[in-house]
Amino acid sequence: MPDNDKGMPAERRIGALLVISTVAALALAVVYIGGGQPQAEGALLGIALGAIGFALILWARGLSTEGTVTAERGPLGGDHEDEDVVEERIEEVSDEPGRRSVLKLFWAAGGALALAAVFPIRSLGPAPGRSLLTTAWKPGARLVDEEGRPVRVETLPVGGTLTAFPQDAEHAADSQVVVVRVADGEIRPRPGRESWSPEGYIAYSKICPHVGCPVGLYQSDTHELLCPCHQSTFDVLDGARPRFGPATRSLPQLPLAVDREGFLTAQADFDEPVGPAFWNRG
Q: Does the keyword field hold Plastid (predicted)?
């Protein structure tokens, strides 16, 4: 294809830019694998994107269309002189990379950029999967206090409360529960939760479903748990249903049991995700 500008033909300029983009993208991947260097990474990324951007501009201006040509129609047919011109034109075009070669270079440059992007994405770590929907509580896990001491049936008096964690997971922030002991017969269990509160013990997630503040204040006269951040209150006897404040969800309840040695254990994990409602509820 003829090039109206002096110097290197359009196909070759585009090819050179795409080669530069490919080399810069591959160098970016190498720098990142080698430990990374912000200035070098920024410069290489700029070169790679800039070169492919200029190549796209040249492609749009010179190769993607022939433009509009207006001329008088000549006589139909041809002669030997026209045949010679066509042959010369074909030979001229065949000496240059051509559009097909340029397209291949576009694919190479795009592939190199994609390869360079793979390594930063992989460094984000594994996908969370269901880890945001579960906690460290397992069937049979003993409850321990903040000092790591197992909680026994006689640990709390009626009206008492403490913060507990799963044994061997004392630092799992999403697994902390507030344990309250009430008098037998006071709890109004929800359907299916009749066996979750042995000996008057009942446990709820300590993470407020509003914005995640710790719910730790217990008013024994009204049987309410209070979140100090925005004053949401939860009815301990009625599945921690919210009574006041901005919280709209009940605190997730942990099903409890008592093992043969008299220690409080978990029957299973929470039956719903813990934490603020904005990330796990539509």
A: no
The set of residues, in sequence order, having a beta carbon less than 8 Å from that of 187 and lying 6+ positions away, is 197, 200, 202, 237
User: Which residues is 233 bridged to in the sheet?
Assistant: 226, 244
Domain range holding 270?
Answer: 143-280
Domain CATH number, residue 276: 2.102.10.10
Please state the domain count of the chain.
2
- Residue 62, SS3 per DSSP: helix
Q: Which whole-number Å values give the CA distances from 196 to 157, 191, 208, 215, 271, in the listed order? A: 18, 11, 20, 20, 12
Instruction: Classify residue 138: in a domain, yes or no.
Output: no
In a domain, 134, yes or no: no
% of the chain exceeding 70 in pLDDT: 76
Residue 218 lies in a domain: yes
Phi, psi at 161, each rounded to 5°: -150, 155
Half-sphere exposure in the Cβ direction for 282 (13 Å, CA): 0
Three-state DSSP class for residue 73: coil
Residue 105, pLDDT > 70, answer yes
> How far does Cα 28 stand from its chain's mean position?
24
Percent helix, strand, coil in the chain (nearest 5)?
Answer: 35, 15, 50
Assess whether 117 and 149 both reside in one domain.
no
**CB half-sphere exposure, 39, CA atoms < 13 A:** 0
47 domain residue, yes or no = yes
d(CA 198, CA 270): 16
- Using pLDDT thresholds of 50, 70 and 90, give the confidence band for residue 101: confident
Is the pTM higher than 0.70? no
pLDDT of 126-159, one tens digit each?
A: 666 666 678 999 999 999 999 999 999 999 999 9
